[in-house]
Amino acid sequence: MTTTHSYDVTVEWTGNLGSGTENYRSFARDHEVLAEGKPGIAASSDPAFRGDATRWNPEELLVASVSQCHLLWYLHLCAEGGVVVTEYQDNATAVMTMDASGGGGQITSVVLRPEVTVTDASMVEKARALHGDVAALCFIARSVNFPITEEPVVHVQPD
């Protein structure tokens, strides 16, 4: 039996500066990402595309989704595999490559750099290896068409 889940969001443009989209420079790219019962996410486009650098852009949100999904599946695998993680931080990076016409582009790679702390040195190798098992399970990784690589670092919690 197939199970489906639905995810509803609202994206509301807030960048009308008074003349709408009269021309390319007449409007702000600001918008809110909304979902029922959750605080809004202030978003815009990348500053390279006339966006507001103080707001999240779609490319950052995509990288965050990849990183979050990896984190959640990784922690699940560690819990199931007897690896006790006490800290986790990922400094993820995406590369967007513009096409030759300059009118479009795509994310061409994501690199995850999770830095994990475990409670015992005997867990280090398994903790490192479990990162490689995540891609087959992560809903986001299974949904994108670019490579996702991991460069994990595992530390042992000091006594």
From TrEMBL:
Which Pfam families does the record cross-reference, listed alphabetically? OsmC (PF02566)
Q: Which domain of life is it from?
A: Bacteria
Name assigned to this protein: OsmC family protein
